[in-house]
Design the sequence.
């Protein structure tokens, strides 16, 4: 009977351990999915920055127009820097950390990368709208 209880305890322990590892992996996968989406937006961000840089260099632009162009460029730059900052600060070193610590870290990081995603989407959308209106004229 004692051996049966020990075997059941070991089985439960291993099962719960693999369950916590699965939870950690699932949350990390969600986080990385958002990261990959943001990285995919980088091409549009760079394209818009290049077009804005070209526009600001054109002669005969009035001051208000140049200010507007620089504002869009600043938003794009801030979104790009937010992504770089997040990537540089992401340190999934969990030696000696508990499951709760790992889950909290991943959850916090997911919130941060989602904020970067939102910031990047807004900057790209606004600058794309501005650029498409410039082409239509």
Sequence:
């Amino acid at each position: 009977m004692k051996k049966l209880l020990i075997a059941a305890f070991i089985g439960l322990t291993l099962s719960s351990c693999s369950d916590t590892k699965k939870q950690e992996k699932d949350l990390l996968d969600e986080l990385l999915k958002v990261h990959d989406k943001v990285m995919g937006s980088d091409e549009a961000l760079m394209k818009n920055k290049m077009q804005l840089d070209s526009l600001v260099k054109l002669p005969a632009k009035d001051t208000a127009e140049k200010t507007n162009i620089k504002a869009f460029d600043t938003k794009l730059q801030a979104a790009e820097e937010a992504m770089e900052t997040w990537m540089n600060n992401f340190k999934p070193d969990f030696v000696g950390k508990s499951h709760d610590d790992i889950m909290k870290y991943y959850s916090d990081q997911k919130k941060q990368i989602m904020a970067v995603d939102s910031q990047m989407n807004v900057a790209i959308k606004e600058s794309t709208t501005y650029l498409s209106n410039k082409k239509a004229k």
Observations:
- DSSP finds three helices and no strands in the chain.
